[in-house]
Structure formats: structure tokens, C-alpha cells
Amino acid sequence: MSSPPRPGGLDDRTVRWRLRVAYNGSGFRGFAVNAGQETVAGALTEALSRVTRTPVVLTCAGRTDAGVHALDQVVHFDLPTATSDLLDPRLVRKSCNSQLGPAIVVREAGLAPPGFDARRSAVSRRYRYLVVNAPVADPLLAGLAWHVSDPLDLRSMSAAADALLGEHDFRAFCRRVPGTSPEEPLVRRVIDARWTRLPGSSGHNAEGDRDAVALVPAEGVLLAFEIEANAFCHRMVRSLVGTLVDVGRGRKRPSDMLWILRSLDRKESSQPAPARGLTLMAVRYGD
Hints:
alpha+beta, Alpha-Beta Plaits, 2 domains, 6 helices, 10 strands
């Protein structure tokens, strides 16, 4: 008779580890390992393999594109039990951070709970997109936010974002993965979608912004679009932001958002916003 699964593991021969990771995506060609390219997973895999002296394969909660950042990405990997038993989670974190920081930082390391899967166990992901709305760009925010010089109507953008709540087919806002049929639905359930003006931005305090950031543009305002959903398809958030900003510019009406959703036609949405303004803020699990 086989032994019962160990905590965090698949069986008595394997132990699963979970990491919480933050990174600045500016210098990486996305998260996923890609031969010949500098990626977050590639760098993290090499560091973990050196620490554990074992080949490591990572699974993440959500792949991020080139230039996209993360404050709280979640990954898992499996180790032989004999190897895992010799490792101190604190030293694993310290070693990875000395090798990779500050571009990539392991915030937390330890054994995963039984049955945990970084991707499949996640119930939602939350992203934030930052926009500096000012006549001229801010050099200190250039790598973290999209500079938009045209005046933006925050009220219209917020009204348009309301149309995203609930379950929809987001084909109009997603880049189709090669090999998939354009007729295949891309249904996602949006739990929250909102625009706020961040604290300290032109003296305005955003009420109830529990994830406020200490970023203040030299002039103009710093706007944040936050969206939480059970899952996202490729370039979905950036396409949504590009379209919402066009609403703020007056190029589209708030009511157009629902019409574009129902069209299922990507040609009806605006060009995606630049990658640099997007950050994966949190991944939520049922545990």
C-alpha cells in the first residue's frame, strides 16, 4: 500500500513548494521560459536550480507579457522529498534574492498545502494599470505608467468600466492564441473593474484605496484601473485600458463598451495600452 501524500506534495517521493514573487518586467521578455530570451521564469528557474541543486520546472498563476510587472505572482515547483527535507525556506528566499534582486524578489517561500496548484487552484487574479494624465511625461514613472497627454474624463471611463462586470465573452478584447479557432468563446467573469485617482495625485485622496501606492507625478494626475476576474485572456487588460482611455478622450462613448463586448470583433476595440503600465497585484485562492 502506498503512503499518504505528504503536506504540500504529490506523493511520498515528491514535495511541492510555493513561492510569492515580485518583479519589474522592464528587462524581461515576459514570464514564461523562452530559449534565448531573458525571462522571469528563466532567471528564477536558474536561481532555484542552483539553490536546490536539482532541475526545477515552474508553474505560475498567470503568465505576464514582456514589460509587465508583478507585485504578487505565485509559482509552484516540485522537489524530491530527500532534497526538500534539507532546505530551509528562509535560506531559499535569501539565496534567490541575492542572485536576482532587485529586478526579481521572492517575497515568501515554503511548502504548498495539499493539492495546491498555482494556476488551477487560483479563484481570481487582480491587475492594476497606471496612467499618468499630464501635459508632459514624468521620467520617474516612465517605466511603470502610460503617459497620456490628452485630458481624460474619469467619470466617463468609470461608467464604461461598469459594463465589464459579470460574465462576458471577451473575444473583442483578446489576442487569439495561434492554433485556436476564432469562433471559440473566451468567456471570463469580472468581479471588479474600477478607475481611481491615486492618493497624493494633485492633492486628491482616493477613498477606500486599500492598495495605494506612493507614486506622485510631478504634474497632472495618476490614474489607476483595477480589474479582478476569475481568469484573463491574452492582452485582455491592456486592450480594455486602451479602449477605456479612448472613452476618456472622447473618441468613444461609455455606452460603446457594451456594444464592443457584444460585437465579439477585436477590430472594434482600441489599440492595447503599453505593457509598462500593467502590474499583477494579487492572486486569490480558496485556502
